[in-house]
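Standup notes
- DV: blocked on the single-chain target, sequence here:
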Amino acid sequence: MLTKEQLHQALVDSQAVTEEDFKKAELATEVSQIGIDGVLISRGVLKDEEFGAVMAVWYNVPFINLRRTHVPSEVIERLPEVFARTHELLPIKEDQTICTIATDDPLDLLERSLLEKYLRKEVRYVFATKADLKAHMYLFAKDPKAMIESIIQHTMGAQTGVDTTAIELIDAIINYAYQSGASDIHIEPEEEYTLIRYRQDGLLHDIAKIPVRLHDNLMTRLKVLSRLATDERRAAQDGKIRHKTQWGEEIEIRLSILPTTHAEKAVMRLLADKSQEFNLTNLGFSEADYGKIADMIQRPWGAILVTGPTGSGKTTTLYSILKVLNKRDVNITSIEDPVEFDMEGVAQTQVNEKTGLTFAKGLRSIVRQDPDIIMVGEIRDSETADIAVNAAMTGHLVLSTLHTNDASTTFPRLQDMGVEDFLTASTVNVVVAQRLVRKICANCIHSLQIDKVTEELLVRNPYVLAYLKEITGKKTVDGMTIYKGKGCHVCHETGYHGRMGVFEVLNVTEDIRQAIMARKNADEIRAIALKEGMTTMVYDGVRKVTIGVTTLEEVLRVTNE
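- DV (later): unblocked, structure below
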């Protein structure tokens, strides 16, 4: 890997970043965890793709964007997954004599020599960023149903005298969930079997069925791992598990066990350390929207609000903003319910209703902690709203979330909570409304002309057709290319893998302030914002459709249009 001096030469001499930006990154709180390049990318100074292009020139090898590359499954299988994950390598192409491998360290000659001996071919490196490589390790995913059946058969046939089936099954279920990017694991008892389901990209997928006779053993194993009472089967229990994957990565898991009519049901929420993944530049903001946010978060006081329904990625956006703001010379304090991820340099407090520590009481105490920046997990009631807005007015930068359908509805919502109009108008700097759309699976993406089904969809949604024509510059849909996933084992035949945000960013300008003071309704405020250049979530979604990130059906599904 490059030394600090080499990285400085590569980035500063090429004018990718300034000397000042590089020095600030050196002094950042999180530099020991993610490196100078990671700090520059997470703070929006440098985009991940820009960094990749600069480093490829430095290394004198081609640059590859894995998000735009189809990798055949037979090529992926040329390397053992454990080795590829450990060394952060991804085979992407091969012919009779050459295997092309993506790496973020093309100068590792010893590694190349080992690969050539193992593959018995010449190895050619291309440069991919560390984040891009990590994000595409899911391509190694195997069929979990076959894997689970194999474990059951293998352990039943073993003559060790010790039943290790539950141990191996739980390890495999967690490892595969992490590998495939699942956020939750459901272990659900039925009358004749136990069903394993994963929540991926916001939707639950059936993964495998396990013989019902193994159910109690699975529950006992989970209770042992989380230090819960193994003899308690009639009461709900909550616990935590620290799991180390076969690739050496640690996952924190929140476990909830609940008695049902059949037996106990378990749900596990995977909280892998994703602090390195909170990256404002990679959330999916358009260049214009990113510019608005980057400008507003540098203001020393005021409120930044992120809105949307539960599960729309609001917390991720807040953490990404915090990561940009997290510097040694500021005091950042948060009150959350719960604290999803630990962030070094941020004093994080968790709501605890049992001890009376509510959002409002916690926020009241935080204001007395000499904070520069305050993050409130959610504004739920009038008291919290009042304290948050007053904190924003008295010299603090306040970040929080609200449950509203779009950006313009935020202001009537604050009015309903009893916040004075002049306070809202003078403190709120920007409102970000968002949803999460599923991304087209990179493993099975293909292009096609707009078909009859899509045409009918556009006829029913003429404003979407207008957006499509505006963005592509075409007068008709004839010959217009869109993208879809064919369906494969990686995406469970859905055609989607991973998620990305669609956004609308409402800057509170002078005209918007006047509208708030005049108690204009949400539609009138929205009209002013659109006139001033705001783009809607649907427009942002259609833009992502045209570049092959998602589909029209998915955009319309999440925006409830």
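- Follow-up: The chain has a mean pLDDT of 88.
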